[in-house]
Amino acid sequence: MTRLTEPAQVLVTESAGYSVLALQEYRRAGDVVLGDRPESEPTLRPEQVGAVVVRLGQFLDAAFLNRFPNLRFVVSPTTGLNHIDLEACSTRGIEVISLKGETAFLDSITGTSELALGLMLALLRKIPAAHQHTTADLGWDRDLFCARMLSRMTMGIIGLGRLGKQMARMCHGLGMKVIACDPHVGNADFVIAEARRVTLLELAAQSDVVSLHADYRRENDGMIDGRFIAACRPGTLLVNTARGELCDEIALAGALDTGHIGGLATDVLRDEQSGAVLAEHPLVRRARQGMNVIITPHIGGCCADAMRETEEFAARKLLARLDLPGKDK
Questions:
Q1: CA torsion, points 272, 275, 279, 282, in degrees to nearest 10?
Q2: Alpha-carbon distance 128 to 121, whole Å?
């Protein structure tokens, strides 16, 4: 059990729409300061901040963390943590509380895999382009958007954790064959997902659609590279709702130019925290040129019910780590 410096403050950096119940829970630990509302009460006092709560809209680097000399906890109601400088936290002895590993709770949170399914359908049927054709161009030529049936296609899933398994279940429901690659899970997970186990390059060669659900770790950086792309079937569709760092975006842009990758839908980009990169980003440019590219601003988990439930779970997780007056021992 840990005590925060008294009087303690909990800084919530992105408070818009935050769960009221979660904020009430944080008030058990200290005064809650809404970091994106300067006019809020109480006033931020950096030396009193014992916990910082962050979503995905801000990168917590060493410079940010060092503003708070008595910071003990960073709380993020997410599974991915590449928006937090974990090395800086470790150096400072700051504990990071997240949803990573909370499998029993997270099994009911389906927003990201649902988005992956929607992006796959939008790519295959070229739904954004068809909408543009009828509403902006006042056209009515269905032959421009002739596609295939998912029930005749093979889905390749990279990463067979919670989200990968959810995606597998949905794809089975659509009649797709499912293959998967994940060196970090056992054969039992493939049996549960009813997915045939293959290597990464075998997956590339055998899939009509590839969906990324892998964790980001250093060995995964750029795993979707030129070698992987070259092994793909011509016209393969790629969906990424995991992390932008998994992809070599320059190689992907080139494969879109040649048509070897038939479409890309991504909810994530490298360096997505910096809006300045968007204007010159190679994938954004190709989307603006009318290629079969869909880019969304990391909305996978952005469902009101999911956000409320995950925010409340993370708040309870922090309170469980604190030695609070009146708390049951």
A1: -10
A2: 11
Q: Mention every residue, 6+ apart, whose C-beta is less than 8 A from residue 260.
A: 229, 230, 232, 234, 235, 236
Contact 203, 180 (CB under 8 A): yes
Torsion angles phi and psi, residue 80, rounded to 5: -75, 145
Dist. CA 156–CA 207, nearest whole Å: 5
What is the per-residue pLDDT across 92-147, written as a single tens digit (0 to 9) for each? Answer: 999 999 999 898 999 999 999 999 999 999 999 999 999 999 999 999 999 999 99
3-state helix, strand, coil split of the chain in percent (to 5) is: 40, 15, 45
Other C-beta atoms lying within 10 Å of the C-beta of residue 162: 18
**How long is the chain?**
329
Reduced to 3 states, what is the DSSP secondary structure of residue 212? Answer: strand
CA distance 128 to 126: 6
Two tokens at 1?
């059990």
Extract the tokens encoding 190.
């493939």
Query: What distance in Å separates the CA atoms of residue 192 and residue 195, rounded to the nearest whole number?
Result: 8
Class of residue 275 by CB neighbours under 10 A (exposed 0-12, middle 13-18, buried 19+): exposed
